[in-house]
Amino acid sequence: MTVKAALAGSTIDEDDESEFLTTIRAHLSETSKSVVDRLAAVKDVYVECGRDTLLDVTFKTFVEFMLATRNGRRDDGRILFVTGESGAGKSAAVRRMLSSHPALQPIQVSFGFVRPVVSVSLSGPSTLRLVGEQIMAAARGYETVRKMRQGEIWKEMPADLRHRRVLIVHIDEPQHLMKDTETNLDRRNLANALKGVMNYAQWPVSFVLSGLPIVDEIARLDEQFERRGTFVRLPNVHMPDERRLVEKVIRALANAGGVECEALIATDIPDRIAHAARYRYGRIAQIVVAALHVAFQKDEATLTRDHFAIAYDRHSHAMDHDGMNVFLANDWRRLPEGCFLIEKGEP
Question: Per CATH, the architecture of 50-233 is what?
Fold first, then answer.
């Protein structure tokens, strides 16, 4: 399929998407192309830390228990809850965890590839029917044309996942589903839908749920989830004890972008970054990437405080409010954690 056909409304596959983006990129200036390439190199970097070791050990144990049989058959499915505050970096950490486990890599068979793990990500208000459709589409590799009722989807799902040899379903940001399940009854319906897949005797499937701490509420309502569940809470970054971790993030991302950063690391900028990020690991990386973007645009070889100040202005309401910019204010510790946003009614 050509880009022209894709733009006319046809389905875009991965090859067409790459071709389309290449066409769009061709219209950029040479300077912007360089910035895009350097940003891509930075975004490809994942900085591992102690929480990744914790996740790896926990997931290794989870998979071992999941695969162990009793009288030649696997037990009912298990469920792993990975939670943390917004910006903690849950999604990236879980994707890395799932993709790096050697026993769960795609396997080539006579009719194609078997993927033991499928992953879906929720955004915006969701329903059990929509989530079920996403899971089935991810397992099959295509969306079904026939529309099914919610009950039909979850009834057919266990056998379908067995046919596709799916062992684990990862649901990212399931709190979007829970926004429409405020009552305990509705949350139990969600729990029952998951249990129906986990309890399928011929092919029990396990789940990994990664999202905000509210996701743990599912387990509080059902003894089976409490009994079969494994819980990991990704903590905030504690300063100054974990300052070296922030330095590690700055150094790894700056090196990927070809920018010097050692002079900056020797200042209090790592502490300011953590404060601006609400001491959340994922946000720390985002702030560093935003500052590097400024450095790339200016074609400057050394990362400085000004790059962070400009990036902070872009992502907050601190423009022309230097006293509220955590990278410019002398008494930055008194500022609220996170980005400065003007409240309604303020001048």
Answer: 3-Layer(aba) Sandwich (3.40)
